[in-house]
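Incident review: delayed structure delivery

Summary: a single-chain prediction request sat in the queue longer than the usual turnaround. Root cause was a stuck worker, restarted by the on-call engineer. No data loss occurred. The affected request and its eventual output are reproduced below so the record is complete for anyone auditing the incident later.

Affected input:
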Amino acid sequence: MKKSVLILIAVLALSFAGCGKGNAESAEPAEPELSARLAEAAGVEESSVYYLTCGKFSDSTGAEAFAFVGEVPDNIPGAECYGSVWYINDEACIKVLEDRSFSVMENTIFSVMPTGEKTFVSVVETFATDSVSHLLYVEDGLVKS
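Output delivered after worker restart:
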């Protein structure tokens, strides 16, 4: 059991596939047009878009990303951020999880897990005394969990 948990952790660490961290630290997103489109769709300044995580999440041939819009602490390990998770592609910006607290890990809230058939994105929602992991994936243009 311990060995399989360690292997899973190693795979998660190696499989993280971010294209940029928005304005977390000083990194600029590699896909600024996605960040700008999301800011417009969410009705916020682009500086409120964080943790832009690009990847191949569906059969789409265009750019895709998950991102966070909201309030982020000053990169404090184990801190929480409050806001919404979005999925962005060439056709739409979709709000996936709205007005929630999420756990910040390694300067992001997302863990990307590619598999043979799908690429999953994990995000941990936090509560006062508990947390819940959401495992998201894209199918037929929709984000499912």
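Verification: Helices lie at 2-15, 32-42.
Action items: add queue-age alerting; document worker restart procedure.
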